[in-house]
Write a structure and sequence with these properties.
By secondary structure, the protein is an alpha+beta fold. The longest helix has 42 residues. The radius of gyration is 55 Å and the shape is rod-shaped. It folds into two domains: 68 residues, no CATH class; 62 residues. Helices cover 28% and strands 22% of the residues.
Length: 165
């Protein structure tokens, strides 16, 4: 259904505008009564005569309403299905891009954590990798332990034997 309001207007005018003209009054007198005019073509005076000329203006206001019904309902249904399919496709593409982003974030954060590189806790970007955990890492960073030298005798420490009793 369509609902369309409208406003229309027209104007008509004649230029130059002349509200009246001077109509001549001719001398129609027969003073000597011989049946012919005494002064034919002479103008006695002029009479102002209205022309009837006027400007016209009109304004039309209203609305138009149409109701249309598709004759091919199958085509309309196909259009709705195509739109739904396109929306689903766009949603899936968006979900795929989000998954790609999260996997890349997980991979990069994990590799950096294994290397001992992290953002300082409490800083603006520390939350980027805050939910990433690195588990089952079998790599131990090279390090050195110092073992204190033992003092005393073998009797103090006890005797140990390896092999036969």
């Amino acid at each position: 259904m369509n609902f369309t309001p409208y406003v229309t207007g027209t104007a008509s005018a004649q230029k130059p505008y002349e509200p009246h003209y001077m109509d001549p009054v001719f001398d129609m007198r027969d003073l000597d009564e011989d049946g012919s005019l005494d002064n034919p073509g002479d103008i006695l005076y002029h009479v102002p005569t209205r022309t009837g000329q006027k400007d016209n203006y009109s304004l039309g206001v209203g609305f138009s309403m149409t109701w249309s019904t598709p004759l091919d309902k199958e085509l309309q249904q196909q259009c709705k299905e195509a739109a739904a399919t396109q929306i689903s496709l766009q949603q899936q593409l968006t979900a795929n891009k989000r998954l790609d982003f999260e996997i890349a974030r997980l991979k990069n954060c994990g590799e950096l954590m294994k290397a001992g590189i992290t953002f300082r806790p409490g800083t603006r970007y520390a939350t980027i990798c805050a939910d990433v955990m690195v588990q089952g890492v079998s790599y131990i960073k090279p390090h050195v332990h110092t073992i204190p030298e033992a003092t005393g005798t073998a009797e103090d420490l006890g005797t140990f034997s390896i092999g036969k009793p």
